[in-house]
Amino acid sequence: MSARILCLYSGGLDSLLAARLLKDAGAEVQAVHFITHFTGSMEKLSGERYMEEWGINLRRIRITFEEFRPLLEKPPHGFGRALNPCIDCKILFLRKAREIADQEGFDAVATGEVLGERPMSQNRRSLDVIERESGLEARLLRPLSAKLLPQTGVEKSGMIDREKLLDIQGRGRKPQLELAERWGITEFATPAGGCLLTEPQYANKLRDLLNHLKEATDETVALLKTGRHFRYPEGPKLIVGRDKEENEKLLQHGGEGRIFLEVRGVGSPIGLLFAHNPSEEILTWAAKIVARYSDARGEPQVTVTRWDIKRAEQTLFAPPAKDSELEVWRL
Q1: Is residue 145 domain-shared with residue 263, that is, in the same domain?
Q2: CA distances in angstroms from 153 to 3, 150, 220, 283, listed in the order given
Q3: In a domain? residue 295
Q4: What's the whole-model pTM score?
Q5: 175 inside domain
Q6: Which neighbouring-strand residues pair with 61?
Q7: DSSP state of 260
Q8: Region 260-268 average pLDDT
Q9: Interatomic CA distance for residues 321 and 285, integer angstroms
Q10: Closest C-alpha among 301, 302, 300, 226 to residue 266
Q11: Which of 16, 59, 142, 246 is buried most, with the most CB atoms less than 10 Å from its CB?
């Protein structure tokens, strides 16, 4: 009787290797890719074609901002160097995987984790914590480092031959690259990339949003990846598009309490101001920033058009913001 194993798939090499290793060990393998605003993708991943070639079905599951939010406000196991709650994030994913495993009769859940590869989330203590708090004791299989870890239930029962699993450890990638060459794997995500929460600039924008709780929604979190972001002191936020694609995207986010700004007749970004009944001072502030990034930035005074969901247009006159001012307001 072969083991039924649900394998977490990130798009990286380690998770690809884990799935292939289990497949070669005779297991029935299915994969799951979790998507948050900060990691994962609805688009086809670079290494996904190998899953198809190996006959491994891959499903995608989206995790909402509200589900993820507690991990950003007070993660039980703390943050990494930026705003990345790596241990708690992995626990969340594995709890979701455990629910699927329980409902659909999988014998174990597997990951591509490697003992010692990441100092915060893949040391021995963290691996034990993740297994325990995810509710997967003796059901969480790490095939790349399995021989260095306690046996899981599928190993003890003989459903998976432990001798077919590996004993990789440490931050070096040589064993993984050798396996990739053996199996003809040439496409996969880089190990350093993938999570926006590890990027300091993105983390700063997200911290600002979390400090304005009423603003933080799935929509506004998704917009953190679009445009330049500015905050009026103790006031509203402005997003300014960087190119045509971003301008078009911002125009899709009108609504109550949303104001658009643009310099007509010249190359201009779209500005999206999040404000209900803003004062003239705030409107002028936003207009100055939009003017600064328009092709009229060299003019002493620029005409900026503003409108809202009701298409009520108004003309503003503002000097382009100085670079020194932008640095004070920029998130």
Answers
A1: no
A2: 10, 10, 43, 63
A3: yes
A4: 0.89
A5: yes
A6: 34
A7: E
A8: 95
A9: 8
A10: 302
A11: 16
Write the CB contacts of 72 (distance below 8 Å, at least 6 apart in sequence). 83, 85, 206, 210
- pLDDT tens digits for 195-222? 899 999 999 999 999 999 789 999 999 9
Pairing of strands 57-62, 28-35: parallel
CATH number, domain with residue 90: 3.40.50.620
What's 115's DSSP letter? B
Going from the C-alpha of 304 to that of each of 80, 85, 88, the distances in angstroms are: 42, 42, 46
Tens-digit pLDDT profile for residues 153-165: 999 999 999 999 9
pLDDT tens figures, 112-142: 999 988 877 888 999 999 999 999 999 999 9
Give the single-character DSSP code of 329. Answer: H
Please indicate, yes or no, whether residues 38 and 160 belong to a single structural domain of this protein.
Answer: yes
Same structural domain, 170 and 54: yes
Work out how many domains the chain is built from and give that number: 2
Q: Rounded to 5 degrees, what are φ and ψ at 141?
A: -105, 125
pLDDT of 247 > 80? The answer is yes
Q: Which domain holds residue 74?
A: 4-182
Sign of CA dihedral 18, 23, 27, 31: positive
Three-state DSSP class for 21?
helix
pLDDT tier at 191, thresholds 50, 70, 90: low
DSSP alpha helix (H) spans, 119-189: 124-133, 153-156, 174-182
Q: Is residue 221 part of a domain?
A: no
Secondary structure element (H or E) that encloses residue 59, with its range = strand 57-62
